Amino acid sequence: MARRGFFAEMHRQARIAQREQERRHRMALREQSAEARRREQHQKALVRLGGQMAKAEAAERKRLEKEQREAYLESRQDEAEIRSEEVTDAYAAIDTLLQATLERDDFVDLNTLRVTATHPGFDRQDLTWAITPPPPAKRPSAPVLLVPDPPLGLAKLFGKRKYEEAVEEAKRAHGRALKDFESGCAAADERDRDAQATHAEAEQQRLAALEREQARYARECEAREAAAMQQNQLLDELIANLGYGTPDAIQEYVAIVLGNSVYPEPFPVQHTFTFEPSTAELALRVNIPEPTKLPSAKHFKFVKASDEIVPVPLSQKECRDRYARAVHQVALRSIHEVFEADRRGLIRTIALEVVTSAIDESTGIRRDVPLVIVGAERDTFLTFDLSAVVPEKTLARLGAAVSKNPHGLLPVERTGVRRA
Fold first, then answer.
1. pLDDT in tens, 360-410
2. What would the pLDDT profile of 120-131 be if each residue is shown by its tens digit?
C-alpha cells in the first residue's frame, strides 16, 4: 500500500489538529453551559437559603433542605440532557457521512500548501538595552572656615591674645578638615573609576553577547527561510510531476485528498491505497470502526433513586440499520472524493474495499472483515447524482459485493464483483 508522503502527512496532521481543536471547543462550550447552569442554580439556592438555615425551625429547615435537593436533581437532569445532546449530534454526523462530502469540493489546490517562513521576535531583547551607568560616589561636604567673632569693648583690649589663639585653632581645625575632605574626594574619585570600569566591562560583555545572539537569531531565520524554500521546491516538484501523471505524485495527491476527508469523531476511518499506472486504477482500502466502537445509547436519563445517569439503549435493529447505512455511505463517499478531486482524470477506475477489524469469536484472533467490495469507472460514476441516491441501491447498480449483515460482521462474498 502507498506510503503517505511529506505533504500528505503534513496535511493530515493539520487536519487532526484542527479536528482536535474543534472537539475541545465543543466540549468546552458544553461544559461552560452546564457549569453556568449549575452556578446559577447554586447561586439562587444560596441567595434563597443563606442565613435562613440557622434561624429556621425544624419544619422550615426541612423545606429548605428539600429545595436544596431539588436544585441538585435539576443539575443532574441537565447533565443527562447534555450527554443526550452529544449522542444525538454523533448520530446526526454518522447518518450524513455522504452528504457531508457532497457539500464541499474535494479538489485540493496544491498551491495552497505553499509556506512562508514566519519568524518569532528576537528573544534576547534584554541585551538591546544599555546598562544604566553607575551613580557618582557620594562625596564629603567641603569644610568651611569658621573663625570666632572679634571681641568688642574691654574684651578687645584685654582679650586680644585669647582671640588670636582661637582664630589660629580654627584655622588649624579647618586645615585638618580640608585634608579629610581632599582624602574623601580622592576616595570617591577612586570608587567612580572602579564603578565606571566595571560598567564599561559589563557593557562590553553585553554588546558581545548581543552580537552573538543576533548572529544566532539570524542563522535560525535563515534556516527557517531555507526550510520554507525547500518545502516549496518539493511542492513545485509535486505539482510538476502530477502534471506529468507520475505514479508517486498521483499517490501523494490522493493521500492529501483523503487526509482532507474529515470524518466525525465517533466514526474515524483510515485509508490505504495503491495506484497502478498501467491500468490507471486505484486500489483503495478503507478501514472503519467495528460496530462495538459506535455509540449505542438512544439517550441518557437520570435515575433519582440511584442518583445515576444511565443510557437508554438503541434497539438492535436501529444499531444494525445505522451501521449498514454508514458502511454504504463510506463506500460511495470514498469513490466520490477521489474522482471529484482528480480533475485531470488521471485515475480511471477505483477498486474499493471497505473493511473493519474485529475479534473472531471462534479463534479469539483479530481479523479484517470485508464489508463492501466494489469497482467503479470514472465516467460512469460521475454521472450519478449522489445527493438523491439510496447508497445501498447505488452499490447494487455498481455490482458491488455487500455484506448482508455488516453489524453482525458477516463478510462479503468476494465472487461475482463487477465494475460499472
1. 888 899 999 999 999 999 999 999 999 999 999 999 999 999 999 999 999
2. 999 999 999 999
What is the number of helices (H) and of strands (E) in the chain? 10, 7
Which helix (H) or strand (E) element contains residue 330? helix 316-341
- Name 366's bridge partners: 359
Q: What is the Cα–Cα distance from 319 to 292, expressed in whole angstroms?
A: 10
Q: C-alpha cell of 276?
A: 497502478
pTM for this predicted structure: 0.73
Cα dihedral across residues 60, 62, 67, 71: positive or negative: positive
Task: Tell which residue, 365, 340, 368, has the closest CA to residue 354.
Answer: 368
Nearest to 244 by CA among 110, 111, 337, 346: 346
Tell me whether residue 356 is exposed, middle or buried, using C-beta atoms within 10 angstroms of its C-beta: 0 to 12, 13 to 18, 19 or more. Answer: buried
Whole-number Å distance between alpha carbons of 274 and 4: 11
Distance in angstroms between the alpha carbons of the first and the last residue of the chain: 24
- Give the three cell numbers for residue 387: 445527493
403, 368 contact by CB (below 8 A): no
Start-end of H helices in 130-245: 154-158, 160-244
Residue 163, amino acid: Y
284 and 350 in contact (C-beta within 8 Å)? Answer: yes
Q: Give CA torsion, residues 255, 256, 257, 261, to 10 deg.
A: 100
Which residues are bridge partners to 373 per DSSP? Answer: 353, 401
* Dist. CA 277–CA 270, nearest whole Å: 23
* 263/285 Cα distance (integer angstroms): 16
266 near 94, Cβ under 8 Å? yes
Q: How far apart are CA 299 and CA 88, in angstroms?
A: 8
What are 39-84's pLDDT values in tens digits? 676 666 666 665 555 555 666 777 777 888 888 888 889 899 999 9
- Rounded-to-integer distance, Cα 143 and Cα 334, Å: 99
Contacts with 116 (C-beta within 8 Å, 6 or more apart), sequence order? 228
Q: Which pairs count as long-range contacts for 146-155, CB under 8 Å and 24+ apart, including other chains?
A: 146/170, 146/174, 147/171
